Amino acid sequence: MPRTRVRAHSSIRTAPLRTAVAVLLLAPLVAACTGDPAPADAGTGRGTGTGSAAKNNDRPVTVQVTPTGKRAEAGQPVNVTATGGRLTSVTVTDAKGRALAGKVAADGRAWTSGRKAAPGTSYAVTVATRAPGGTVTTNRSFFTTAPADRVNKVDWRPGTGTTVGVAQPVSLVFDRPVKNRADVEKQLKITTSNPTEGSWGWLRDWSGRDRVDWRPKDYWKPGTKVTVNAELNGTDSGTGGWFVRDYATTFTIGTRQIVTVDLDRHHLTLLRDGESVRRIPVSGGTPGGDKRSWRGTAVLMAKEGTINMNSETVGLRDAYNKMVDYSMRLTWSGMYAHAAPWNARFFGRANQSSGCIGMSTADATWFYAQVRPGDPFEITGKETKGVVAPNNGFGQWNLSWPDWQKLSALR
Questions:
Q1: Which of 27, 112, 130, 274 has the greatest CB tally within 10 Å of its CB?
Q2: Choice among 9, 266, 267, 338 that is catalytic
């Protein structure tokens, strides 16, 4: 199964998809930054200056840049200060021309980048200043950060350009542990075309890795366009190492579809925009043991088609080993909706599966074509083995909104 898997705090924050070249203009720009290699004296933090202060009897403006050196500490903002004058422009770019945006202090004498310097990266800093007498001087300096000893990577869902159901969360799973969760969460931004309240929550993924998901307070509004920006480059995850790139994805919310599964009455119903489209007789998990189904809200994770299902992979010994058609994954623990023609005598009458929601091949063919990843399955039934856990697929909808918000590292 593909695993293209990225505060926003409890409300949406607008963030651009890409950072534009960051040039702070307080007066006309007098110098442009290039990607030239650092000169032999790179790393002093003071740089080289050009101007005509002596001709105008102006005292020269002193510019200080930190970090400095050829193995500077990564994960720190770039700071520029001017003594004896004011900053008129500051440009900080790496060797690929990517810029660090920043903000100048009210007195015009200091500038700080909004993003942190990434590990293993060389930066050029071009600073224009104005002396009290009006003389403009340009200073240029360079520094290079030490490389990362360990790199943390991200898998995310949903994939870019997809259309998903109204219960689909944003989910980022990290290759390595994330100790600095608050620092990481601050770099995650959600932008939506409709006002949407939501929150990040930290989980231990079913795989055992650290994971952070963003879900709206209620199901998404159909048609909402969502942009995710994980501006992680230069962020230290803690013991898991550094992030050395940003991640971004965009997706759209499709039609409001909800699947209700009544295991006591042995049928499921597809609701579209609140109207019943079709009721299908099913057979759920066998009561009285480990073969029972889960209840609560599960979210369709993926449509996997024809797959091999082996009971040993879900702790059921030698109960089954067969190829199964029209498989729709609902949990990491192995609960699917799928075609189950071998169980035909139980559809609409009894729960006699090994935990999945089975239906006829004809019904599965139709149903498979109707649903999409992100559609919620709201499952009820007395003879179940419990509620789907938040990390077992996308079970976070089984937490109340206040309980979900508590899982944010920024609360």
A1: 130
A2: 338
* DSSP annotation string for 68-102: -SSSBPSS-EEEEEEESSEEEEEEEEETTS-B--E
Distance CA 65, CA 319 (A): 67
Residues 6+ apart with CB under 8 A from 378: 258, 259, 260, 261, 296, 297
Q: How many domains does the chain have?
A: 3
Could you report the per-residue pLDDT of 252-279, keeping only the tens digit for each? Answer: 999 999 999 999 999 999 999 999 999 9
The reply to whether 33 belongs to the active site is no
**Mean pLDDT, to the nearest integer, of 11-33?**
34
Q: 106: domain CATH number?
A: 2.60.40.3780
Q: Does the residue 13 lie in any domain?
A: no
Three-class SS of residue 170? strand
Tokens found for residue 240: 């898991």
Q: For residue 325, give the CATH number of its domain.
A: 2.40.440.10
Tokens read off for 129? 């200043």
For 218, residues 6+ apart whose C-beta sits below 8 A from its C-beta are: none
pTM: 0.82
